[in-house]
């Protein structure tokens, strides 16, 4: 078997383990290429049946309209259930303080909404599109990552996980985060998208847009999410997004790549990691991701 | 452009240089991206508190806060890289005895193990333990990396002595191939680039070895096994009678028309369809995730094993195997657990511990009543329901099992099944 076939089959196997072992699973759908890939894999795992889980989106309210439209189109065309919960509502209900200031982002608040949503629907497993090659803390996480009732990851007490045997037994209130594409690299995902002709939001391909330059990064002005400051320069550039997430913490890259071939060629040639190029949230501190996971983030 | 995939692990005692070696391998093969390199440069400076030391390449895999604070590896890290020849999944295991279960986790899917030995210390207890685990897990290739050669003046004698020491140990293990490479992970000697300090060594560098080692296919191709994961029943008007069994073929191959047996119930039928991605296949083989359909409407659910009828596995309630115990709570004769083999789970109790392995000598220690964390032992189990399996030696994917603690739900043991008693 070709390695992409091996990765695909491993991911399908993991998703079916979720279907077989849990009563109320969910697929966390962020609108990015990794979760779009998960949805494609779910089709291969469960068609002609329906997905044994809904798609769940935690909307920060700071998403690209293109990504939201794509999300709705995808759920609709598949005839699968989509649940959306809003960080905005959590802020209101819990009277949370919205981060303010220069690089304010709702990314951290997402966790509250996620945990509330897990509680609301009593989800016992949440499938996510995280990959081990993304970040040094993710590189350490199991495929079945058991979380306590606060969603907290304890890297010192991970369960042994051997062969392709996954242990999803949990106590009430706990839940498991499951990562079917743990062993895929960014390039594997792109090669797979190309091979399978998976549709993506247009944000992933070169397009012209208005941006502001801040700390050397190109941030979208779309939706007025990022408040321009006097020394921010407003520019129009041809860019694409290497990752698509919350507008406040996802930077664009200058690029002319408007086809999958061209995007893949760029990723093959790049000397900067995906998160290093685009994610502001990881660059806050040494252990930003580990800390967020300990706090319940996926 | 089908490329080989090699999964390997680094193991050996604490501080022998496993993480540094992986860092060096990635660094010298230019597989580290600039921002990741900058990040570890920054972290190295903080760590060395400006004592002018170079970059600490171990930080590439030691990504957890407590790992960085203590300068040790706690849990396995996975790294991915490729050369024009092969794709690699690297598993960096912790050397500390307390975290042996994490090493076991990482090793279970590997085809090759790099056992590091500090050239100053030679073979130590963890070298023996990890080598034994690698052998019990059936990892066919072992590379003994005799590291820190810079600290013994790159002396050939130091290298040869340890080779002899290890070869002695390897005789008692079940490994098909052992290679020895002298190196300095810290300075990069014989990792990717050939060492100018050890002209006496004529073998391959580590990377050359990894790129060329013959990958014996460790999947069993002759015993068709299909653990049912999930039953697909759309129950819509058009697909009213649709009933497909979803799973991944563990070993062997299935064809439409094959006579099959469903275990443990022993009902028989014939494969009517093999489906993948809503298309029909005539045949599917080990590693593929598919949907099987049978001619007869028999009762099949998750946990059942579909096999080709002319190649029956063992179906038994009294089974034995080699156990690796991974819990701080002791295992005692008479204790009860959940045994998971493939997708099947059943309760079981420990009937007997015929022997435990002495890590120093690999000799059997008999009359054992309980096992402690990290013990390796032969055990006899009695299961509540019959389990269908092959011996681990014959079929790794259908002979590996885990024990789950019923109250904590934690995976506490790994069992390489050996047969019926
Ligand atoms: N002189 C010398 N030092 C080395 C060499 N390889 C590693 N070291 C040093 O040995 C120490 C331990 O290295 P690590 O790579 O963290 O060891 P490890 O085997 O990963 O340790 P654990 O994962 O905690 O078991 C560090 O200070 C390294 O710099 C080598 O070839 N020569
Ligand atoms: Mg280490």
TrEMBL record, chain A:
Region span, Disordered: 275-298
Q: Which GO terms describe its biological process?
A: sulfate assimilation
Q: Which domain of life is it from?
A: Bacteria
Q: What is its EC number?
A: 2.7.7.4
Say if the entry is tagged with keyword Transferase. yes
- Residue stretches making up the Phosphoadenosine phosphosulphate reductase domain: 25-251
Compositional bias of kind Basic and acidic residues: 289-298
InterPro entries, per database record: PAPS_reduct_dom, Rossmann-like_a/b/a_fold, SO4_adenylTrfase_ssu, Sulfate_adenylyltrnsfr_sub2
Q: What class of enzyme is it?
A: transferase
- The parts of the chain that form a coiled coil are none
What are this entry's molecular-function GO terms? ATP binding; sulfate adenylyltransferase (ATP) activity
Q: Which UniProt keywords apply?
A: ATP-binding, Nucleotide-binding, Nucleotidyltransferase, Transferase
Q: Which family does it belong to?
A: Belongs to the PAPS reductase family. CysD subfamily.
Which PANTHER family does the UniProt entry name for this protein?
A: SULFATE ADENYLYLTRANSFERASE SUBUNIT 2 (PTHR43196:SF1)
Q: What is this protein called?
A: Sulfate adenylyltransferase subunit 2
């Amino acid at each position: 078997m070709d390695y992409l076939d091996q990765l695909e089959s491993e991911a399908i196997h993991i998703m079916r383990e979720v279907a077989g072992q849990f009563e109320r699973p969910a697929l966390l759908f962020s609108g990015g290429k990794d979760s779009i890939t998960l949805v494609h894999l779910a089709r291969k795992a469960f068609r002609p049946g329906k997905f044994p889980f809904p798609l769940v989106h935690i909307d920060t309210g700071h998403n690209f309209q293109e990504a939201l439209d794509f999300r709705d189109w995808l759920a609709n065309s598949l005839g699968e259930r989509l649940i959306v919960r809003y960080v905005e509502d959590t802020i209101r209900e819990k009277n949370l303080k919205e981060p303010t200031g220069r690089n304010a982002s709702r990314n951290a608040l997402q966790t509250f909404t996620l945990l509330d949503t897990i509680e609301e629907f009593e989800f016992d497993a949440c499938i996510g599109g995280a990959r081990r090659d993304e970040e040094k803390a993710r590189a350490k996480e199991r495929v079945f990552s058991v979380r306590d009732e606060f969603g907290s990851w304890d890297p010192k007490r991970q369960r042994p996980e051997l062969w392709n045997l996954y242990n999803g037994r949990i106590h009430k209130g706990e839940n498991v985060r499951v990562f079917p594409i743990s062993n895929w690299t960014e390039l594997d995902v792109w090669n797979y998208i190309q091979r399978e002709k998976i549709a993506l939001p247009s944000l992933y391909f070169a397009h012209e847009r208005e941006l502001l330059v801040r700390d050397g990064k190109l941030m979208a002005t779309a939706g007025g999410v990022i408040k321009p400051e006097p020394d921010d320069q407003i520019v129009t550039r041809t860019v694409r997004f290497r990752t698509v997430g919350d507008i406040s913490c996802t930077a664009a890259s200058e690029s002319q790549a408007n086809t999958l071939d061209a995007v893949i060629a760029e990723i093959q040639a790049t000397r900067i990691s995906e998160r290093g190029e685009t994610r502001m949230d990881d660059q806050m501190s040494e252990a930003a991701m580990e800390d967020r996971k300990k706090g319940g983030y996926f | 452009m089908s490329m080989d995939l090699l999964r390997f692990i680094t193991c050996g005692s604490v501080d022998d240089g496993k993480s540094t070696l992986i860092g060096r391998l990635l660094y010298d093969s230019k597989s580290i991206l600039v921002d990741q390199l900058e990040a570890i440069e920054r972290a190295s400076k903080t760590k060395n508190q400006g004592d002018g030391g170079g970059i600490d390449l171990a930080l590439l895999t030691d990504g957890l806060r407590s790992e960085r604070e203590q300068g040790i590896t706690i849990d396995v890290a996975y790294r991915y890289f490729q050369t024009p020849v092969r794709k690699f999944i690297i598993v960096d295991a912790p050397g500390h005895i307390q975290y042996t279960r994490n090493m076991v986790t990482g090793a279970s899917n590997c085809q090759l193990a790099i056992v590091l030995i500090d050239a100053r210390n030679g073979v130590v207890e963890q070298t023996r333990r990890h080598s034994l685990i690698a052998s019990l897990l059936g990892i066919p290739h072992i590379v003994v990396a005799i590291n820190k050669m810079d600290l013994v003046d790159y002396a050939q004698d130091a290298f040869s002595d340890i080779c002899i020491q290890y070869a002695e140990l390897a005789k008692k293990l079940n490994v098909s191939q052992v290679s020895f490479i002298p190196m300095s992970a810290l300075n990069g000697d014989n990792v990717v680039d050939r060492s100018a300090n050890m002209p006496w060594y004529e073998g391959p560098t580590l990377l050359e070895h990894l790129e060329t080692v013959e990958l014996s296919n460790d999947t069993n191709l002759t015993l068709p096994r299909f653990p049912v994961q999930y039953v697909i029943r759309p129950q819509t008007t058009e697909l009213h009678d649709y009933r497909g069994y979803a799973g991944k073929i563990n070993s062997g191959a299935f064809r439409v028309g094959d006579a099959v047996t469903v275990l443990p119930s022993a009902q028989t039928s014939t494969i009517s369809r093999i489906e993948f991605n809503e298309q029909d296949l005539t045949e599917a083989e080990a590693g593929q995730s598919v949907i099987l359909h049978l001619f007869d409407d028999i009762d099949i659910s998750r946990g059942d094993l579909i096999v080709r009828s002319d190649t029956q596995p063992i179906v038994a309630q009294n089974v034995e195997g080699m156990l690796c115990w991974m819990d701080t709570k002791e295992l005692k004769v008479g204790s009860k657990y959940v045994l998971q083999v493939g997708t099947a789970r059943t309760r079981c109790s420990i009937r007997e511990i015929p022997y435990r392995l002495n890590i120093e000598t690999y000799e059997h220690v008999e009359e054992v009543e309980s096992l402690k964390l990290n013990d390796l032992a032969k055990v006899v189990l009695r299961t509540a329901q019959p389990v269908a399996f092959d011996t681990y030696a014959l079929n790794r994917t259908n002979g590996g099992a885990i024990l789950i603690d019923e109250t904590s739900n934690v995976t506490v043991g790994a069992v390489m099944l050996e047969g019926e008693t």
